[in-house]
Amino acid sequence: NWTGLFTPGERVRLRFINAASNSFYDVRIPGLKMVVVQADGQNIEPVEVDEFRFGPGETYDVLVEPSGDAHTIFAQSMDRTGFARGTLAIREGLSAPVPALDPVEWLTMADMMGRMDHGEMNHGAMGHGAMQGMDHAGMNHDSMRHGGMAMDHSRHGMGQQPLARPSQKVNHARTEYSPSTDMRVDMPRTNLDDPGIGLRDLSQGGRRPQDHQVLTLADLRSREGVLNDRRAPVREIELHLTGNMERYSWSFDGLEFGKSTPVAMKHGERVRVILQNDTMMTHPMHLHGMWSDLEDDQGQLRVRRHTIPVQPAQRISFLTTPHDLGRWAWHCHLLFHMDAGMFREVVVS
């Protein structure tokens, strides 16, 4: 029971660093509001919340104003198998009640398949592992990406600003149709305001007080001056996060590290990266050597991060500017996933 001491009446800054190898944590301090002021060490517009989720590699700085003699810092794992705890107290030896673990919640169909608009669904692009009887004979492979190479959408628009907004057209690489991939998402979600499975509608379900606020990516906005590169992107790179749960194989575009080719970026260019999660797990994605400036699906810049969690069946995008030459790692920060193949090399030249 780690204990942090405070003086009554003072404001305390806490820096939360998820140093776990394979666990997302949902963090709250019952009875205290938290004002989030930094994400991944970068200043953001302050946002008041009651709880936040973060994965390995992510960091949040929060301000709290303790009102009692002791408060429990409670961090339960996303799979609800355990928790970590600490205490804020006015002196050593004090403690506060520890909440019970929340019940496990199962993924919804939207978590597994994305937007549930069947009127436009192309069933040919759904996961073959889940639909063994599917006939792929009519599938148009010519429109797919080949060889697991990151797709460059630099010509996908015809207007004055063809890359003003991220492409919504889903492109599955031919290499996704392999034993290393057990599902594909054809209609991904693009919203950033979902707290994730296990954190939705907590007040309505009676598990939290009324008006309990959970942090989402949509709440994060960088302070003025942080997003210091306002250039439009010159091209898009699309990569899919893929895996096979039964084989415990994880990859980009169906290719584990060692089977893939490096992603090439030019020094100083402004690039949009689209990441689509074709798996049923949330992946905290970390691109080394450069910042990831998260945007919404309309192309509006939101917040600067170095590690971005991508939820199941979600499609997100960010802009980046490679300033440093060399070879850089790009990987899922869940250690087992990285070791099993969800790792890619980026070469900046």
Shape: globular
CATH topology of the largest domain: Immunoglobulin-like
Seen as an oligomer or otherwise, the chain set is single chain
Rg result = 21 Å
How helix-rich are the residues, as a percent range?
under 10%
CATH class of the largest domain: Mainly Beta
Number of strands: 21
Largest sheet: 7 strands, mixed
* Beta-strand content: 25-35%
- Broad structural category: mainly beta
Q: How many domain units?
A: 2
Task: Give the SSE string.
Answer: EEEEEEEEEHEEEEEEEEEEEHE
CATH superfamily assignment of the largest domain? Cupredoxins -  blue copper proteins
* Count of runs of 4 or more consecutive helical residues: 2
Q: What is the mean predicted local confidence, pLDDT?
A: 90
Which regions are unreliable across 5 or more consecutive residues at pLDDT < 50?
A: 118-148, 154-158
The appropriate CATH architecture of the largest domain is Sandwich
Please give the alpha-carbon distance between the first and last residues. Answer: 48 Å
Features:
349 residues, mainly beta, Immunoglobulin-like, 2 domains, seven-stranded mixed sheet, five-stranded mixed sheet, 33% strand, globular
Summarize the model shown.
By secondary structure, this protein is mainly β. 3% of the residues lie in helices and 33% in strands.
Note down, in words, how this protein is organized:
This protein is mainly β and 349 residues long. The protein has two helices and 21 strands. Strands 10, 11, 12, 14, 16, 17 and 19 form a seven-stranded mixed beta sheet that branches. The protein has a five-stranded mixed beta sheet with strand order 1-9-8-3-6, with no helix packed on it. The protein has a five-stranded mixed beta sheet with strand order 13-21-20-15-18. About 10% of the residues have low confidence.
